[in-house]
Amino acid sequence: MRKIVISTGGGDAPGLNAVIFAVVNSASRLGWEVYGSRHGYKGFLDPDELLRLTPKDVEGITPIGGTILGTTNKGNPFKMPVQNLAGETQFVDISERVMSCFKRMGFYCHIAVGGDGSLEIAHRFAQMGMPVIGVPKTIDNDLEATDRTFGFDTAVSTATEALDKLHSTAKSHDRVLVVEVMGRESGWIALYSGIAGGADVILLPELPFDMEAVCAKISENELHGKRYSIVVVAEGAKAEGGKVLNRGTGEAGRAEVVLGGIGEWVAEEIRQRIGKDTRSLVLGHLQRGGSPTTFDRLLALRFGGAAVRMADAGQFDHMVAWTPPTMSAVPLEVAIRCRKHVDLNSDKVLTARSIGICLGDKD
Ligand code: F6P
Q1: C-alpha distances out from residue 223 to 59, 62, 202, 211, Å
Q2: Ligand 1: does its nearest atom lie under 6 Å from the Cβ of 139?
Q3: pLDDT higher than threshold 90 for residue 250
Q4: CB contact at 8 A, 147 and 303
Q5: pTM exceeds cut of 0.90
Q6: Distance in angstroms (rounded) separating the CA atoms of residues 220 and 233
Q7: Residue 137 Cβ contacting ligand 1 at under 6 Å
């Protein structure tokens, strides 16, 4: 009988549990045993962190946010943070240990659900001989090889709902409200939620912005009797000639810096330049929480089912990708190579411009 292991790595995203549900049910129907590794690769090393998952164990988890397996963005086995006796953080490579545990436990393959970082780790294990299949996950939607990642639609819905709510308070106080949304170096969440949520200004990482253009739009609103404005700014956006703002790496062992601060910076500039009463808020992890939308559930379930079919066909070192109208298998090496950015000539960007949304340039 085949035994497979599934892990979830990196930041959580709504839909992870739906993938787990689909993998467990599809694999069980083939007569396979499924195990879940808790917090990334922990279950590979510690039997207490390895869960046997049967259809009964995953019953009803599809609509639940987060991941029943837990996740981490400090669990890279090739660069695992450990504290030495002096309390300093050092990095050790424990990948060989993970490999030998994987072999000893007799797993047929590993289904690794994660974003760019986790998929890169999965590919490195594939190169060491682990049969791996990647499932793309990130609310940022920034993986080039797949049309969509699950979690994105839910994050956009949450951000749009927040913008809807901010209109009434901004209008009541004649204020400018600046909302910082997630997405790292890609502006998908900002663009989609900004258009759907009636923003006046959307600032994207793909288009460095000019504060004069932003303030001109807010002043133009005033001229037309609209005394409030909503500005959506992606956490990875920057002013022309400026830098992407960040809050450092946070906890030891994180691979990436925590982006943030640009919303407050933009709000302060608006206050100083045109004297408008301005408030900023960071939507933050609200965008990662909650029940996945129908779209994300369906996509995640389809990813999980396709991943097991790929495993059955022995198509390893590949990532399942949504390439409408079908699911395809993309080599992990290709999948991790490129980030997907907003195309400034795309229909959505043109729509934003057509309906009068300022993108922070003088266009
Ligand atoms: O990649 C998903 C994401 O939510 C980004 O949009 C954001 O920059 C980052 O993760 C935040 O990570 P953390 O939860 O570790 O602060």
Answers
A1: 57, 49, 20, 18
A2: yes
A3: no
A4: no
A5: yes
A6: 19
A7: no
